[in-house]
Amino acid sequence: MVNYQENLKHLSPVWTHLTDIVVDHAEGCYLYATDGRKMLDFTCGIGVTNTGHCHPKVVEAIRQQAGLLIHGQVNLVVHKPLLELVDELRTVLPSTLDGFFFSNSGAEAVEGALKLARHATGRPNVIVVQGSFHGRTNATMAMTTSKNSYKIGYQPLMPGVYVTPFPYALRYGWDEEKASQWCLDELELLLMTQLAPQETAAIFIEPIIGEGGYLVPPKTFMKGLRELTQKHGILLVADEVQSGFGRTGKWFGYQHFEIEPDIMTVAKGIASGMPISGVISRLELMSKWIPGSHGGTYGGNAVAAAAAVATIRTIKEEKIIENVVTRGAQLKAGLAHLQEKYPQIADVRGLGLMVGTEFRDAHGKPDKKTTKAVQAECLSRQMMLLTAGPWDNTIRWIPPLVVTESQMNEALNIFESALAAVI
Ligand SMILES: Cc1ncc(COP(=O)(O)O)c(C=O)c1O
Predict the structure, then answer these.
(1) For 186-221, what is each residue's pLDDT tens digit?
(2) Does 275 sit in the ligand 1 pocket, CB within 6 Å?
(3) What is the best residue among 143, 242, 354 to mutate for testing ligand 1's pocket, by most ligand atoms within 8 Å of CB?
(4) Which of 51, 158, 322, 407 could pair with 55 in a Cys bridge, judged by C-beta atoms 3.0 to 4.6 Å apart?
(5) Which of 43, 128, 133 is the pocket-test mutation for ligand 1 (most atoms within 8 Å of CB)?
(6) Ligand 1 contact via 52 beta carbon (within 6 Å)
């Protein structure tokens, strides 16, 4: 008999743990622990299990593919699920985004996008926005500015990464348009004073900032970015790792802003939990990527690709994006109602089912203590929620996209009783 708790102590402490729950199995919005607990999972494994845990259609696709071919290395052979995945993705993307590269994790996709941007433009530098999270590998760690805990002890970082401000209106105490214009002006200044446009390959942005605090940029900012990048021949990279596959009420986050990126990175929700990620771009750009200069053993794995195909088909067949819009409105309305009662909730923001509740104290300062206490109270009431932001003062709501009306009410009730217990 394996002693789970004993073996837990042997996992590297570099892995932080929100709980010590040992999961036996999971279904839909719930995790079932070996000790009998049933947890409402509003973390979605950090925005991954969009179709819910173990959706039967995804499970069946994995089972079938595992019996046919698990690994067909893409430099050696090509397999059906990979080509079916290209086909499915093309049905939810503009016809211009017609080139695909697959890897395993979000960070790998961002690294891939960086390498593509450098080859496609012949330029060395990139710009990221303040608050960005792009991963924890060497390059993506340098591109991550959401918290310095991801960088401590790893200096020197990859050079060639510059940071431009993000229009975090609440933080600046400005309205969105003022924040947007100021940030665009600062970006122009950055390009005049710190790195020349002709040496800038790309600007990377999460269409909705994730780990950095669930921040939605004003449309004018995204449009301004698009105009400025086009003017200078700089590529615009949308990191859709967290915001993709229906999470925000559209297939991809960038679609809210009437812009089209040059490159997209996808992962997480693409395959309901199987590890696969992708770099998507115009084939014309991809053709400038020197063959063999990037790749990996497992990229586009057959079982993961089959899970991705089943995920996309399920999102379409079960009208999951429509559910996101309805349940997102329910969530935001419920939270706005609680905000009236608890002014410590300084902001309720987000798109679809990517929603943040930011806590600030009576002086308007970030309130991590209350945030963490509310999260802990929710946990003791069997609901898992994550926090985000540089001060960890934002609770992030990322339920499975199949969440029902009554499950959403259950979550809001738990949250309300947690607030009552803490405040
Ligand atoms: C926007 C974004 N990009 C990249 C990553 C990194 O993905 P992974 O953890 O799969 O490497 C994440 C992970 O949270 C993310 O949210």
Answers:
(1) 999 999 999 999 999 999 999 999 999 999 999 999
(2) no
(3) 242
(4) 51
(5) 133
(6) no
Indicate where the chain has its CATH 3.90.1150.10 domain(s).
4-41+319-422
- The amino acid sitting at 57 is K
DSSP 288: T
Atom number in ligand 1 closest to CA 135: 6
On average, the pLDDT of the chain sits at 97
Q: Any idea which residue has 């709980």 for tokens?
A: 19
CA 318/CA 117 separation, integer angstroms: 36
What is the 417 CA–ligand 1 centroid distance (Å)?
31
240 lines ligand 1 (CB under 6 A): no
What is residue 277's three-state secondary structure? strand
Q: Alpha-carbon distance 386 to 32, whole Å?
A: 18
Task: Establish whether residue 134 lines the binding site of ligand 1, counting it when its CB lies within 6 angstroms of any ligand atom.
Answer: yes
Q: Would you say the CB of residue 244 lies under 6 angstroms from ligand 1?
A: no
Are the C-beta atoms of residues 151 and 132 closer than 8 Å to each other? no
Q: How far apart are CA 167 and CA 280, in angstroms?
A: 26
Rounded average pLDDT per 10-residue block, the chain, 423 residues: 87 94 97 97 97 98 98 97 98 98 98 98 98 98 97 96 97 97 98 98 98 98 98 98 98 98 98 98 98 97 98 98 98 98 97 98 97 98 98 98 98 98 96
Every domain of the chain with CATH number 3.40.640.10 lies at 56-317
CATH 3.40.50.1860 for domain 4-41+319-422: no
Distance CA 79, CA 84 (A): 9
- Measure Cα distances from 245 to 179, 218, 255, 361 in Å: 28, 21, 12, 35
Does any ligand 1 atom lie closer than 6 A to the CB of residue 242? yes
Tell whether ligand 1 has an atom less than 6 A from the beta carbon of residue 310: no
Cβ of 46 below 6 Å from ligand 1: yes
For every residue of 341-358, DSSP letters joined together read H-TTEEEEEEETTEEEEE
The CATH class given to the 56-317 domain equals alpha beta
Atom of ligand 1 nearest to the CA of 267: 10
